[in-house]
Amino acid sequence: MSHTAHIPSHRKPRRSASKLALRAGVAGGVLGTIAVAGAAGPANAEPVTETIEMPTLGSLETAGLASAVAASAEASQQEALDQSLQTQENAALQQAAKEAKTAKAEADRKAAAERAEKAARLKAEQERQEAEERASRDRERTRLVAASASTSSDSSNSSDDNDSSSSSSSSDSGSSAGSSDSETQAPSGSAASIVAFARAQVGDAYVRGGTGPNSWDCSGLVQAAYRQAGIDLPRISSDQSSMGTSVSLSNLQPGDILYWGSRSGSYHVAIYVGGGMYVGAQNTSTGVVERSLDWDTPSGAVRIL
Q1: Domain range for 200
Q2: Does the first or last residue of the chain, that is N or C, have fewer Cβ atoms within 10 Å of its Cβ?
Q3: What is the CATH number of the domain that holds 206?
Q4: Residue 257 and residue 14: Cα distance in Å, rounded?
Q5: pLDDT higher than threshold 90 for residue 119
Q6: How far are the Cα atoms of 41, 127, 258, 280 from residue 284, in angstroms, in the given order?
Q7: What φ, ψ does residue 217 adopt, rounded to 5°?
Q8: How sure is the predictor about 117, in pLDDT bands with cuts at 50, 70 and 90?
Q9: Contact at 8 Å (CB) between 218 and 207?
Q10: Could you tell me if residue 46 is inside a domain?
Q11: Does residue 199 share a domain with residue 103?
């Protein structure tokens, strides 16, 4: 190892080439100016002493640093502005989503309230119609009872003028009619298919305007039952009761059409199935049922078969 290895160097640190070039350029310019001035002046002129402040390397470095700091500050300012704008945009989006959710909930609530109100109106209307139908049937039943009582009174007065044998004959005839009414009749042929179809629908729902297969109104059920026998009936109850020939309630046969109201203006129809029973689509409360004639006595009947 050299004996000078541990001796610290006394050399000045080497300056960079750019710094040396800058200093040399500045010094050369100054010396050139002085030389030109000396040559142009008179020989006996006193030397002019001029102090020129030379820019130092430190001032140039300070100016660059200030520029860099200013640029950094501007970039930080721009970034802060961008972040503020992004924050405001996110807040606006969240507020819009919240308002949209609130508006949807309010719209759903209003729609549910409207559906409930509509359902209540429909129910009230159905109850009103059923009440009107019951009242109409009660009025028609009262009229028929009064007419029957009047006919019985006329017959009684007429029988007083007859002899006892005629009275006895009339009594026997009445007994025969009564036993005929209570007799269970077995349908056959087309009547059998009509009765079978009608009974098969017992338990189905009543729907105004319904024509099957699982919901009916009164005339829709009658029309479908007769279609099983190859017979086309009108769709409306009043038109159906105007078909065929009129028959008395004491002379009914399975398959006859029962009607309530007047024959040309009936408001309800059903099918007589024998044994004093009928099948009809009554109302929304009962649906399609099989009932006794005594449960709701019809106004009349027609026979089409």
Answers
A1: 187-305
A2: N
A3: 3.90.1720.10
A4: 129
A5: no
A6: 132, 9, 20, 12
A7: -110, 180
A8: confident
A9: no
A10: no
A11: no
